[in-house]
Write a structure and sequence with these properties.
It is a single chain. The protein is α/β, with parallel strands linked by helices and 436 residues long. The protein has 16 helices and 14 strands. The structure holds flavin mononucleotide.
């Protein structure tokens, strides 16, 4: 059976690209102007990507050794600029591709979130989406006057209430509330704009929003819940779910689980697109690609080891620097951070040493290596096995050269096979995303 068409998206941050790479060029100097992401998204649109997604956090982590040193040395979580103001700039120079930015339900008051997102939806002509996260690091929380985040599952209760309010605010102006009646002089009809009078456990919001919602109304929601509570939340609200899972059978299992949960909430599972992290390694020949793979993920470079350890420490809030690299992967760890990430890591690496676990951790998704044609074959085969719905590309390394290898090599090959879109037939991002 031939694979069904699937979606491509790109996972990135508003942070420094791989500036040390021999192909880094001037990206290390110019990324803060937005120019790097601008050139990237233009290529992505030509290559039929559904959206670019900006992950976000607001901390300088000291989870490794109680110091900020490694986080700053590797530019892991800082510097990181706020992606919200970048989206309208990216939209001005592209036509249709979707733009997703992250907003935390623990830190953003729902009214501000609803307003800034709806404003961006107007500015972009209906092309933005919201990546809903609950945040998982106390060092970030402490920037907002919160000493300690709520317990993991309760953060999702708060997120439920938050998202519910945001949706009500987006709906607080009826679609025909703006009348602009020149005879009577009415701009808006007050009977069609209603307060929401929300009083809940975590928030109190009067409403209405002081502006009509954008072209998409309720915006497309992106989510990445991995724990049982997080999966329920994602299945209930999300149109796109992004997943980091290198094991193919677990990719399939995750997608099927999400689809079953979506049905439980009365949703059409086809309205929830599950996209899997992937960093294909691409060469002009198979040998060249494998050579690159070894350089990137062979974990021979002490700097690479340090970086992966610090990255894992920051999301799990566990100081991986204090464990012996050649001892078995520790199995007694707990966190109030990304619980499913930690549980998955312990399970997957129970027969490995910490050092042996690093290569897979660095790759995030399943291993795909080869020429543009063979990478396209592997992606097609993966989708057939998993059942859908597409990939979330993470550049490795993040250089213009890598973006070109995907957008001028792999994606056109997938487009020629009819597996990736060549056009965006609808007016809004949400309609295009849900069209197949
Ligand atoms: C692809 C992907 C992107 C994510 N982006 C963010 C992000 O931008 N900010 C954030 O705080 N968490 C982010 N997360 C973490 C998730 O929101 C979530 O906490 C994590 O997947 C663990 O699931 P759980 O919360 O159900 O335990 C991301 C996770 C994945 C897999």
């Amino acid at each position: 059976m031939a694979a069904k068409p699937f979606h491509l998206a790109w996972f990135t941050s508003f942070n420094p690209p791989s500036w040390r790479s021999p192909w880094g060029g001037v990206s290390g100097e110019e990324w803060m102007t937005g120019e790097y992401h601008l050139s990237m998204i233009k290529q992505m649109e030509r290559a039929g990507f559904d959206f670019i997604m900006f992950e976000d956090s607001t901390m300088v982590s000291d989870a490794m050794g109680g110091t900020q040193e490694l986080d700053l040395k590797h530019a892991l979580h800082s510097p990181k600029l706020d992606p919200f103001p970048l989206l309208p700039m990216l939209a001005r120079e592209t036509e249709k591709i979707g733009l997703i930015a992250t907003g935390s339900t623990s830190f953003y008051p729902p009214f501000i979130l609803a307003r800034v997102m709806a404003t961006m939806d107007h500015l972009t002509g209906g092309r933005v989406g919201w990546n809903v996260v609950t945040s998982s690091e106390d060092v970030a929380a402490q920037n907002y006057g919160i000493d300690k985040l709520l317990p993991h599952d309760e953060r999702y209760d708060m997120a439920e209430e938050h998202v519910g309010i945001v949706k009500k605010l987006w709906e607080s102006w009826e679609p025909d509330a703006v009348v602009m009646d020149r005879e009577t002089g009415h701009y808006a009809d007050h009977t069609k704009v209603s307060p929401i009078h929300h009083e809940g456990t975590y928030f109190k919001v009067r409403g209405p929003l002081n502006m009509p919602a954008g072209p998409q109304g309720v915006l497309p929601i992106c989510q990445a819940g991995g724990s049982p509570r997080g999966r329920d939340f994602a299945a209930k609200h999300a149109n796109a779910i992004v997943v980091t899972q290198p094991i193919v059978s677990k990719m399939k299992e995750y997608r099927e689980d999400i689809r079953a949960r979506a049905e439980k909430f009365g949703r059409d599972p086809d309205d929830v697109k599950v996209l899997f992290h992937l960093s294909p390694v691409i060469g002009e020949t198979e040998d060249e690609a494998w050579e690159q793979h070894h350089r990137l993920f062979g974990m021979e470079d002490p700097l690479a080891i340090e970086k992966v350890l610090a990255m894992t420490a920051a999301v799990t809030e566990i100081d991986f620097g204090k464990y012996d690299l050649d001892a078995p992967f520790p199995q007694d760890l707990t966190t109030n951070g990304h619980q499913s990430v930690l549980a998955d890591l312990m399970e997957r690496n129970k027969d490995k040493t910490l050092r042996e676990s690093l290569s897979e951790r660095a790759q995030l998704g399943p291993q795909v290596v080869g020429t543009p044609t063979s990478v396209a074959d592997q992606m097609e085969a993966l989708m057939e096995e998993v059942g859908g719905d597409g990939f979330l590309i993470l550049a490795a390394p993040h250089t213009r050269r890598y973006i070109d290898a995907i957008c001028s090599g792999v994606a056109p090959e997938l487009q020629r096979r009819g597996l990736v879109r060549t056009e965006y037939p609808h007016a809004t991002f949400k309609e295009n995303l849900l069209a197949f």
